Amino acid sequence: MFIKKSIFGLIVFLSITMAAKSQVKTAFQVSFKEPQAHYAEVEMNMTGLAAKNYVDVKMPVWTPGSYLVREFAKSVEGFGASVGGKTVKTEKVNKNTWRVYNAKANGVKINYRVYAFEISVRTAFIDASHAFLSSASIFMYPAGMIKTPSTVKIIPFNGWDKVSTGLEPVAGQKFTYSAPDFDILFDSPIEVGNQDVFEFNAAGVKHEVAMYGGGNYDKERLKVDMAKIVEQETAVFGENPNKHYTFIVHNYAQGGGGLEHLNSTVLGASRNGYGSERGYSGFLGLVAHEYFHLWNVKRLRPIALGPFDYDNENYTTNLWIAEGFTSYYPNKVMLRAGLINQEGFINANLGGIGTVMNIPGSKVNSAAESSFDAWINPAYRPSENGNNTFISYYSKGQVIGNLMDLEIINATKGAKSLDDVMKAMYLQCKVLKRGYTDAEFKAMVEKVSGISFTDFWNKYVTGTVDVEFAKYFAYAGIDVVNENEGKSVPYLGANAGRSSMGSGKIIVGSVARGSGAWNGGLNVNDEVVTVDGAPAEMSLERMSQITSKKVGDVVKISIVRDGLKKDLDITLTANPAVRLKATVKEDATPLQLAVRKKWMGVN
């Protein structure tokens, strides 16, 4: 009887506790008193709190999709709180957590300011012309209550009249939006200002495009071509999971990059780049990349990427799929949409292979290792030795996606492709309501292809062997050769440039692993004075003192290191760079033609 009563009491206690947590709601209000100084004013009202002496609120240290701890708390100032209009005690208990002593009150108001002055698709930026709110860097959340709902009311600065976001609007309340939990809020950027907004419909979904910064874009042309991309990518997965989608585009003198979100994306672009075919195609490629993330990474995701830990790094070995395959697919999608031709498609894939093979780090860093080490990779944490130790999971994953696609198509005689794997894994994640493991993804590849991929995994996923480009392209009746094979071009292996201090000095910026410069002791930050007695130039590799020599010859380089002059004898090695060229065979076999057609998705 005692046990039954105890269990009943525990159930009641847990029910009350869970009910209390479920009643917690947070209402934010964001205003801009000093946008010219790059500040947002944030008011955070929490209600339905449990009867405790304090509540902790936290600022995320990173934003999903960008794998770097950015310490957003560093931009917070003026933190304070009140209950019933009376100021209450607060204290900071660790780098991203503030404690509010609310004396068991069920509601508390918190105020703080956020400084936002970093232009990127991942970070908030505010000035007199607009405000871009990257939500993870603006909004705090109550500790342990990430699944509680919130609303956000935006009060635009004087003269601003538009808000663009993927958040759901609250009926009857202007510029007010709701999120069922903080994962959704942090995955929903907000653009505030006077952005140029236009819309199009594709795959049964309303799409809004919010353009900030002006530019020479043609809205009508973009509506048509962006819709083509949406339709082709939706066709890969069989369904579009959104009711509406928002593109936030920041046009600067020189812009680039993108960041995916659940039903929106933020893109960086060059405002005058739309006028050239190269610039326009590049923008569409970025659209295709970020929109493909709507499935791959946001829903079809590695198991480690959600639910998120916003306090720490979230590790996975599968970013070569999440980002790499998303780098592979834009060229396929744009080919199928008629936005590039077959030659452009083939050359883009060969270029990706060449990029990987020409980076020394590809021989020491596997795709899985690169994924796991995303948090310390040189793309986010620049390192002069990065190319010697690291290969981008974007680049390597793009190549793996290409090879895997061709292997699957060849094994199934043109019946199946990587599309079938991606669709099946998307549906699996949807049914299981969780992400996939590496083993599950490999198992699906083998199920679809009907062959073992263990050797493939050992070579390209966990291994570092060079790409067997000729083998895989031959499946599609395409001969690929390395035009540099057999050539013996002398190679120093060092890049240099003029000093940023304005002195005009030639300073070594990087040294390639295994090159003559590497073996001969030339160091990053050395000042190169002369090469075989001639004054140094920035393009050391193209100096006549090097190009007129042969592999094995010695070059005498005079440098200054730490104020001391030093002479180095460097033996030139052969340039290891590959340059790939493709020839589409006119006498391809029926199987090769079937593979080519399935691979490209066009006749």
UniProtKB/TrEMBL annotation:
<feature type="domain" description="PDZ">
    <location>
        <begin position="477"/>
        <end position="563"/>
    </location>
</feature>
<dbReference type="InterPro" id="IPR001478">
    <property type="entry name" value="PDZ"/>
</dbReference>
<dbReference type="InterPro" id="IPR040756">
    <property type="entry name" value="Peptidase_M61_N"/>
</dbReference>
<dbReference type="InterPro" id="IPR024191">
    <property type="entry name" value="Peptidase_M61"/>
</dbReference>
<dbReference type="Pfam" id="PF17899">
    <property type="entry name" value="Peptidase_M61_N"/>
</dbReference>
<dbReference type="InterPro" id="IPR007963">
    <property type="entry name" value="Peptidase_M61_catalytic"/>
</dbReference>
<dbReference type="Pfam" id="PF13180">
    <property type="entry name" value="PDZ_2"/>
</dbReference>
<dbReference type="InterPro" id="IPR027268">
    <property type="entry name" value="Peptidase_M4/M1_CTD_sf"/>
</dbReference>
<protein>
    <submittedName>
        <fullName>M61 family metallopeptidase</fullName>
    </submittedName>
</protein>
<feature type="signal peptide">
    <location>
        <begin position="1"/>
        <end position="20"/>
    </location>
</feature>
<dbReference type="Pfam" id="PF05299">
    <property type="entry name" value="Peptidase_M61"/>
</dbReference>
<keyword id="KW-0732">Signal</keyword>
<dbReference type="InterPro" id="IPR036034">
    <property type="entry name" value="PDZ_sf"/>
</dbReference>
